[in-house]
Every structure is written in C-alpha cells, then in structure tokens.
C-alpha cells in the first residue's frame, strides 16, 4: 500500500486544547527514523492550539447539556454552539500548523478528526463527538475522516478505546518483543496490553486526570496539579479508596469503556486540598493496577503517555503498584503529548484503506471492522 501523509487531531476529556500531529503511514506500518541509541525519532511535526477560558467554559457547559441527549443528532442547550466552536478551532489549529511547517493543503492526504466527546454511553449504543467533519474538510480543502466510534458501537462494541492498533504498530516499529503495557492517561485512562505472541487486550482502566483536574480547579483555580506536587503533600483517604475500588466497573471483564463523568471528585469533598488530590491520584494509579487482574501475560514494561506522564507523583505511585519497568513515551522517542493525535492520523488512513480499526479484544465488537465517515472538500 502507498504511504500517505496524514494529520491527526485530538481534543480530549481534559478540555485543554487541540493536539495536531503529522505522520506518514500506509495504514499498517508507520514511517520512522531511529536515533543513535536505537530509539525512535519523533514521527513528524506536532502542534497545539490551547483553548481559552471562555472556550473551556462553553465545552464544560456542553458536557452538562449533553446529559439530555437521547439521539446522536440532538444538540440541546449550547451543544450546537459548542460544535461550531470545536470545528472552527480545529480548523484554525490545522491552518496554523500548516503555515508553521511550510505545508499546504495539497501536501496532506487526509485528516483524522476525533472531535470532542460529550456523550459516551455504549450500553445505550451512543457515543457523540461534536465537530463537523464535512465543514472542516470544506474549510481546509483536505479529506477528513471523522465519527470514528459509531460503526463499532452499532456493531456491538464499546466504541473505545480506538488507539490500540496504533500502539501495536509503534511497538513493532520499536522492536519490542516482551509483554508490554501502554498506558494513556488523559481525562480517562486506557491501557493496551500486548502479549509476547502479539495478542492485544485494551480497555479503559478508570479515571485519569479528569478528577484531579476538576478538584484542583475547584479548590485552587489552577487547571491541574503541576507534577503532582499537591498530591505529594497529602495523604490518601484509604477508606474512601477502598470503597471506590469496589465499583462494579473494575470487576467487569474487558473490553470496557468509561464516560468522563462516571466517577465524581465530589466524593472527596470533605478532605483538605492536599488529601483530596492525594486520594484522587491514588485512585487513578490503583485503578490502573487493577488492569493486571485481566492480563494473561502481565507486562514487564509499561510506557506512559498523555498528560499523566507529566505528573511525577502519579508516576511514582504507578511504579509502586505495577511492579514493572515504567517509562514515559518521550523517554523512548514516542510522544507523551501527541500519541493520540498521531493515532487518529493512523486510523484515518486505515479507514480510507478499509482496514479494521476496532477488534473483539479492544472494544468487544463481534468481529474486526473498519469505521469512520469520509468527507471530501467538494462534498
């Protein structure tokens, strides 16, 4: 198959901004370079468009208004305005990225557009990512693949996680042969477990940064716990943690996925700022450790990506509870910050090629299927 130049766009549940990443792929392999130490060099240029406080306020209200959604096409409350905002800001992010890297629309074969998740209820066969792929394609003059979760959910899957097939491609490019865990900690945390025989098991492990971020915003006005410093000064509430970890979600066999708001930081409301941060950080780490309950070939190495890879206290706790080698994606030439954006570029090419993007062992879909909706500028 032909190598294509693809851009991936990701706006996650942390509501911080738009990640942009360019890769070259044929939908199976990823073009990589190796540094002298044998690790991968960055796959391609990346960019970022931060949301303003007003942008985030509208998106947070959209999450609240989306609770009333009963059909995928419904846009109650501020959802229509939020969808227009998401589309426009993603377009601006791509336009800035192309300009900064001396590229034009003609240099890009396809864009993978995740959109902003406002509803994820796979048990009701519903996952809604706002953002208009057709409008984005028309504005940019580039093909866009969007709505990447719907086909999987319609076929009986969870619609998440979508990135494991990209994780496997990166692991193969890196030459990993031992059992490997790839942990992405965004608003929600998800893990891809790759056994030595190449089998993949993937699922959401539980909360990622969302609860911690919400707690810090409410208590301090800051968007996050920088490097986990606040949590490091506190003590977890062990009784509350024990209660949280008996939630039925953790005992369910994967594949399984979560909505951002399944767990509430309000549970820690009676704690000090430091103890609340410590409790929620410990909750994220111990929920990841529960993933080992479902591993037939427990990882000897974990690679951590996403915003959580910048939280030193969370990494310390993961190192303690996972009892395996822990490294960040950046340390081996992957990208902690842009791994998901790269994944959606990869998934867009797989979609165009008609290759499967979800599998029984990653989303619970009955058989491996492709997905995504292709929009062309002329549509």
From TrEMBL:
InterPro entries: Anhydro_N_Ac-Mur_kinase (IPR005338), ATPase_NBD (IPR043129)
Catalytic function, reaction form: 1,6-anhydro-N-acetyl-beta-muramate + ATP + H2O = N-acetyl-D-muramate 6-phosphate + ADP + H(+)
Protein's UniProt keywords contain Ribosomal protein: no
Pathway: Cell wall biogenesis; peptidoglycan recycling; Amino-sugar metabolism; 1,6-anhydro-N-acetylmuramate degradation
Enzyme class: transferase
Gene3D superfamilies, per the entry: 3.30.420.40
Molecular function via GO: ATP binding; kinase activity; phosphotransferase activity, alcohol group as acceptor
E.C. number: 2.7.1.170
UniProt cross-references to SUPFAM superfamilies, sorted A to Z: Actin-like ATPase domain
One BP annotation, GO: peptidoglycan turnover
Entry keywords, A to Z: ATP-binding, Carbohydrate metabolism, Kinase, Nucleotide-binding, Transferase
Residues holding ATP: 12-19
RNA-binding keyword on record: no
Family: Belongs to the anhydro-N-acetylmuramic acid kinase family.
Function: Catalyzes the specific phosphorylation of 1,6-anhydro-N-acetylmuramic acid (anhMurNAc) with the simultaneous cleavage of the 1,6-anhydro ring, generating MurNAc-6-P. Is required for the utilization of anhMurNAc either imported from the medium or derived from its own cell wall murein, and thus plays a role in cell wall recycling.
Full protein name: Anhydro-N-acetylmuramic acid kinase
Organism from which the protein derives: Methylobacterium aquaticum
Organism placement in taxonomy: Bacteria, Pseudomonadati, Pseudomonadota, Alphaproteobacteria, Hyphomicrobiales
GN (gene name): anmK
């Amino acid at each position: 198959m032909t190598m294509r130049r693809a851009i991936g766009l990701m706006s996650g549940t942390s509501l911080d901004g738009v990640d942009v990443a360019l890769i070259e792929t044929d939908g199976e392999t990823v073009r990589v370079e190796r540094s002298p130490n044998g690790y991968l060099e960055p796959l391609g240029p990346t960019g970022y468009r931060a949301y303003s406080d007003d942008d985030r306020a509208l998106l947070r209200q959209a999450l609240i208004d989306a609770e009333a959604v009963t059909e995928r096409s419904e846009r109650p409350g501020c959802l229509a305005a939020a969808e227009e905002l998401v589309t426009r800001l993603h377009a601006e992010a791509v336009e800035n990225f192309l300009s900064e890297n001396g590229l034009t629309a003609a240099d890009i074969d396809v864009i993978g557009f995740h959109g902003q998740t406002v509803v994820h209820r796979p048990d009701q066969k519903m996952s809604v990512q706002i953002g208009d792929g057709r409008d984005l394609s028309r504005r940019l003059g580039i093909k866009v693949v969007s709505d990447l979760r719907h086909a999987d959910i319609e076929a009986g899957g969870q619609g998440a996680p979508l990135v494991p097939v990209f994780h496997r491609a990166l692991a193969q490019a890196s030459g990993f042969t031992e059992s490997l865990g790839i942990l992405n900690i965004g608003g929600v945390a998800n893990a891809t477990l790759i056994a030595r025989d190449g089998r993949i098991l993937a699922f959401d492990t539980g909360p990622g940064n969302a609860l911690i971020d919400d707690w810090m915003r409410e208590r301090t006005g800051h968007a996050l716990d920088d490097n986990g410093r606040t949590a490091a000064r506190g003590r977890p509430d062990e009784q509350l943690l024990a209660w949280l970890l008996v939630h039925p979600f953790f005992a369910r066999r994967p594949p399984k996925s979560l909505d951002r708001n399944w767990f509430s930081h309000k549970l820690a409301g009676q704690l000090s700022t430091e103890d609340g941060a410590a409790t929620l950080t410990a909750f994220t780490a111990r929920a990841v450790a529960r993933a080992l309950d479902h591993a037939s070939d427990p990882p000897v190495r974990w690679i951590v990506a996403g915003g959580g890879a910048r939280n030193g206290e969370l990494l310390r706790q993961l190192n303690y509870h996972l009892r395996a080698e822990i490294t960040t994606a950046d340390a081996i030439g992957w990208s902690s910050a842009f791994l998901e954006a790269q994944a959606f570029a990869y998934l867009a090419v797989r979609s165009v090629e008609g290759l499967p993007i979800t599998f029984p062992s990653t989303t619970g879909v009955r058989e491996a299927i492709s997905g995504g909706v292709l929009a062309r500028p002329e549509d």
